């Protein structure tokens, strides 16, 4: 197979700089900060001790300067949204801590920043930032996780006392799975249907105190403990039920809608649906953080599995007197290296996403904001599924050793498992992406439900989704310069693009058949098509982000190596979906086989660099504690070989 | 789509009887026995309490009569090997207990039965059966998990004292991950290289006492605790190191090899390799039990997810005023129903496997024994990967509720995760299957290592692997009677068969290129092909087992429903591998799309029966405790709907 150059060595520092990217300064500072604080994962503890330790660690983090990144300068923050996302990603070795930090500063603090106004900022933000005021983000209800627009908690305005009455009408409306609720939270951002003068204005957020300074729940507030979970047991999730709890009118986070003392409702945005989705849009940071953290957890798992695979030997290799290093087996490379390539691809796509989030902040550019939300939804789904699959594969690749708690993979698996569910169920998120692709991002953002898209598409043409992205101009250039084989980057890019167009066109045609009566049936029979449209779109965006990153790389050998890794991402993605490409005659059977051959050959060529490649991500060293990845296995192999070779056996 | 009949209802009792199969009487008795003993899973406990509870439960099980099934009549057992495998499968709700039972009675007791002779049977079996003598099965070493033939522990015969000296020469040779070792085991079956008169005779098993009656480790025996694991924490895994430990000559389990007082070695089997693999073959029951237990755990997870999916609603369904039941969504059906179909298929394949094991016992039919071992290896790999994937999917399908410990999926995931590794790493097992397919099952069973197969295939022709199986004659008949579309069972069967032949032929051709020097490279570059050959073989066998079961079903509607489920297994398997079928022009692009359409349609038709189908497996009711699957969700939905419809909201 005529494979392009794979360099014998590359410049690790160059690669690390490229990976650190725009927020390299934040990554460096967090690495330094973490080197100075011990933050061991507490999953060996019982639930209560684990929670207590996580809270202590959160206080250490509060003092580290890290949380300030995400807060406005007016309260002593540094207003660096991108930096705040990147800093949270740096905690993959203690995911309970990461999630608790995300709840306190990202969701709870972020909601007060984004949905509140000056009166809330002045009164609360500093205490939230310092953790003097621990809080909750109470959106999800027992009966409504994905369909948040239809949650059932009510906040009814009473003009007589100028108060809102917050109430849980029945068990399904109970706030469910609320982080920080079972033990530590004192104030909650509560999402509820706002009712005034007998009329509902849709979902709004209010600040509702839930505990006093002694940790006792307040009158009318019932808090239950969600109990033990598969992982993340350092986070105290709870259920909250409100029984006619009264809060002052000013408790409403009133940036997008307010109630005057006499009960008159006012909002700059007409339409309850659009208003709520505008609010949700301002909270997108949490979803982006989950995608980033899924990425770091994947990197940590791969570093453990690759270091072990590079030391562990099994079965004698004839003629050498030695046993074969397991990472030399094609099957082992196949398990880990395409996953490594995809991890690189997602890393660069995530960097672009965080940049957009950072640059777009308060720009008022609604179209770009919708695009950001769609991309965030898609990348979150793809990154978290990739994490679940890859960490599982790493566990298996480490055999029984991977099952021992000391080797970290068990906890990484258990902790990240819920990432595919929280901050938006992945399946629901992909539907959101598909809807975005089928509409022109105008003012149609009214519904999260699956049927939303059927209504929008009915009279619409599929929009040109191939917009200017950081990679697009490069793509055109690259497409014209390579050779005509499976390593041809231009061919790869066109293949991804063509697939996306075809899938979308077909979907639009199917959904246009919907009339009023059969909308559900039409949507439902095409649901697999809907999910595919979203997936192939994201895969194309991710490939483009990787291509753009290779082009940014200045060192020739490093760029050449990244080029091969990018080939591996592109071709293993094609291989996994070759059923579709063949079915639609986009590749010939012969080329399809060549793709598989190329993936095998790329694995072989990249294998010598695998450990250096994963190390270049520069995860803080305190997170790598697995004995199998930090020398124990290598030492054991040396002893065994010395013994096997000794004259007296 | 012209889909064959799917009946409106079916006879659950009929289906249950078919599923209970040959050991229906054992299943009934175990269900009754378990109804009388509470055996709650202890994963909410700390490690020590969990282990203590599991031991107590094991004593309850010892008294239940269940362990007797697997022991010879001579010691009070019932000599029902098949029944003993089936009975262990019935414990999916407490997998620590199942695994500890498997260690004590299956591995430890099983090794004494199979490898020992009368002197061992008389002295030990009764106490093993009653659990008066808890023991260990000490095969795996830290440095050699898969390549057991090359383990490093030695048992050197000393004619002066007529003793064996059991010794661990270095850390890699330490016995690793030994169940029952960290806390409870008193006697161990230890596998070691037997050396007498300066000559090694390969791996043999000896009985070595490791603890006294007070639980203290004996002189020369060092036992360490493996510590916390991802799951199965009720099982006390440990590491054992021997420092020149002496045991009498009679401690050797001498059925396949013995040492006379003067040190002369004698064995009925020439060749250390063949001898060891004959010994391993007698221990196959453990691997078969793991496949069966993986199946039950999958059934339990599916029952939870299907019951929840049948109650849970999300997003309003226009025109109905109700929300949509989540199992009505195609995407949800796609997650769960093909997995359910495969679970049925594997259930029937497992039943055939257990039958062969039972009937073959001590028959001396070496060829059938090799086939059994190969099939056991393949089904274990396929069943445990299916369990890992399906339980993960069930967790995700239950959203956040699936992540709560109370809903069981977390524990099922964690406990079953290691099934893909223990009792043979799945990747290594599939290589074993491929090797079996490439040789003619003669006396070539000499090596477990990957290169073994290269050597065997060099001068051999691929054997006709399509032997007489319980399904084969039916297959021929069925192949002639159906219509020519994707639902044509004959077409499906031929497609599976043709794929297997083609993959095997190609593999044999590739491996024949090996010469002495390049054997590793030739094998390694074809390793993905090797694994595929094994997989497609097992998939064909599994389909045939399902087809045979449908033919056994006497009730017309039940058979028709099973027929559709069998279609779903066949067609979703084709769909998942349509890349291969298209690449090799076994199906046209158009037929490939028809397969996907058929899978969607089958999901829609089978959906109304999903809960009844999974319930027909008849898992003991004490294992189903998840609130989301036992009424809580349904009750909540009723309350919410009543409230939503009340005039005053």
Automatic annotation (TrEMBL), chains A, B:
Q: Which residues form the Acyl-CoA oxidase/dehydrogenase middle domain?
A: 136-245
Q: Needs which cofactor?
A: FAD
User: Which SUPFAM superfamilies does the entry link to?
Assistant: Acyl-CoA dehydrogenase C-terminal domain-like, Acyl-CoA dehydrogenase NM domain-like
Quote any Pfam family the record assigns: ACOX_C_alpha1
Q: Does the keyword Iron apply?
A: no
Is the Iron keyword given for this protein?
A: no
The entry's family comment says: Belongs to the acyl-CoA oxidase family.
Identification of the protein by name: Acyl-CoA dehydrogenase
Organism, by scientific name, is Saccharopolyspora rosea
Q: What lineage, starting at the top, does this entry show?
A: Bacteria, Bacillati, Actinomycetota, Actinomycetes, Pseudonocardiales
